[in-house]
Write a structure and sequence with these properties.
The chain is α/β, with parallel strands linked by helices and 247 residues long. It has a single domain (8-246), classed as P-loop containing nucleotide triphosphate hydrolases (Rossmann fold, 3-Layer(aba) Sandwich). It is 33% helix and 23% strand. It has 9 helices and 9 strands. The strands form 2 sheets. It has a 6-stranded mixed β-sheet, with helices on both faces. It has a 3-stranded antiparallel β-sheet with strand order 2-1-4, with helices on one face. Helix 3 packs across helix 4 (143-157) and helix 4 (143-157) runs parallel beside helix 5. The longest helix is centred in the C-terminal third of the chain and has 16 residues, at 173-188.
């Protein structure tokens, strides 16, 4: 692995849905070993940015490199935890089944799961505090437990780049603290994390770097220098209610 290659490099990215422009001429570089809070108001294009980087959306313009190449060459190194609304909770799978799905990118077409895969899944479930739920169907869990399951799946994958789309929505404080602890541990091991986040009061506590967007890049950098009242005001614009609550 070349440590000089950036996990993500975006140049001139523009994305539209139909005739509506969602992202405009974005340039950004994401460095390894950090937790990035992706911050912006509703409709700012945060989930769209994720999907463009992951190759799930075709940009109108621009170039995206993941570990120095097209994203299709790095699938095994990427873990994605979508919004809870994007998941079918009635799917007939147990907690262990879901967590073990994190191992599938490392398997050949007919290759079976082995003892090491099971060990990694067990370790991930223990770290997220859900080992005792291993045989439960995911639809029977609370919102916080469900979120822990999908974070555990991402851990089990042993990826280098993680995308978390609103991981703290609908979870209790215990789960939130457990997820934050896991994220910081991953970053300390050289992993890179991008996290869509809405609670401005916890940004400085949870993330060492921030990306503020509102259909274009507003600011990117260390949380201490980029997460300023001036940049937040530029990012949220007319949505002053949220801004005033944060202040």
């Amino acid at each position: 692995m070349n440590n000089d290659i950036l996990p993500i490099e975006v140049k001139g990215l523009s994305v539209s849905y139909g005739n509506k422009r969602i992202l405009t001429n974005m340039y950004m570089q994401v460095e390894a070993g950090h937790t990035y809070g992706l911050i912006g108001p509703n409709g700012a294009g945060k989930s769209t940015l994720f999907k463009a980087i992951l190759g799930l959306l075709e940009p109108n313009a621009g170039e995206i490199k993941v570990f120095g190449a097209e994203v299709k060459h790095s699938r095994k190194r990427i873990a994605y935890v979508p919004q809870k609304d994007d998941i079918d909770w009635e799917f007939p799978a147990s907690v262990k089944d879901i967590v073990l799905m994190g191992r599938y990118p490392h398997k050949g077409l007919l290759e079976r799961l082995n003892k090491n895969d099971l060990k990694l899944a067990e370790e991930a479930m223990v770290e997220l505090g859900i080992a005792e739920l291993a045989d439960r169907q995911i639809g029977q869990l609370s919102g916080g437990q469900q979120q822990r399951v999908f974070i555990a799946r991402a851990l089990c994958q042993q990826a280098d780049l993680f995308f978390f789309d609103e991981p703290f929505v609908g979870v209790d404080m215990s789960t939130e603290e457990r997820i934050v602890s896991a994220m910081k541990k991953m970053a300390s091991e050289g992993k890179t994390l991008l996290v869509v986040h809405h609670d401005l009061t916890t940004v400085e506590q949870y993330f060492d770097k921030v990306i503020l967007i509102n259909q274009r890049l507003i600011a990117l950098g260390d949380t201490k220098t980029a997460f300023t009242q001036e940049n937040i005001a530029r990012c949220y614009g007319a949505q002053l209610g949220m801004l005033q609550r944060w202040q």
